[in-house]
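User: Quick sanity check before I run a bigger batch. Here is a single chain. Can you write out its predicted 3D structure?
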Amino acid sequence: MEDSFFALRLIIRHGGLASVVFGVAACLISGFLFWGSIGWFAIIPALIIGALIFILCKSYVELVNVVFHMLN
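Assistant: Done. Predicted structure follows.
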């Protein structure tokens, strides 16, 4: 019974760190993609995109946490 819901336990355990990593990665990638067209102003949309990705990932982790606690 200990190994049941392994994926949920993994998301709960490492989801916060993964949210930060995905947010920073999205920020860096979008910054590099926008750099050629708008230069230094690429920082603004890159930060917005990174923040949105972080919020989406973090809310998913919280939703998984609620589901997990309902199951156990």
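Residues 6-71 form one domain.

User: Great, the batch can go ahead then.
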